[in-house]
Design brief:
Blueprint lengths: L1 H17 L23 E10 L5 H10 L2 H4 L6 E8 L3 E9 L3 H11 L4 E8 L3 H18 L1
Antiparallel strand pairs: 1-3, 1-4, 2-3
Length: about 150
């Protein structure tokens, strides 16, 4: 698990340095939700904190409090874009992470969440505008055929 986390952090640093954290242009017309705003040197990261099925909620809370999870997560320069609880799975947290804060994010998870949750980390991007543009082009193509 540590090797996977370190590999992912390395990949995130490379993407951040290459400037691949750009968002697509916004589609015309109103959007139902605002796109995630991230800085030029930031990336979106989705963290999944999976519930460990052998622990009940009071046990998980005790571990998190003992390890100071709520004091160290998220790190101070990391912005929470969304935080969802999926029943039967756990917490799904999307974060805007400056390139220089990736190590701090990793340490916050290792020091605060391990033992209470199984962690998964994914490089993320906002797909809603891409989807809306595709649907619009598809509709235009249908109209052109008629």
């Amino acid at each position: 698990m540590l090797k996977k986390t370190l590999l992912l952090v390395s990949i995130l640093l490379v993407f951040a340095q290459m400037g691949l954290a750009q968002q697509p242009t916004a589609p015309e017309g109103p959007s139902t939700t605002p796109p995630a705003v991230i800085g030029a040197d930031s990336v979106l990261v989705t963290v999944i904190l999976k519930h460990q099925q052998n622990k009940n909620l009071p046990e998980i809370r005790r571990i998190l409090e003992a390890q100071g999870f709520w004091d160290i997560f998220p790190p101070q320069d990391v912005r929470v874009v969304s935080w969802t609880l999926a029943m039967g799975l756990g917490h799904i947290i999307t974060l805007s992470v400056p390139a220089g804060a990736i190590r701090r994010l990793n340490l916050a998870l290792e020091n605060g969440a391990w033992g209470a949750f199984d962690t998964e980390i994914y490089l993320t991007y906002d797909y809603q505008t891409v989807w809306q543009e595709y649907i619009g082009r598809r509709e235009d193509a249908k109209e052109d055929r008629n």
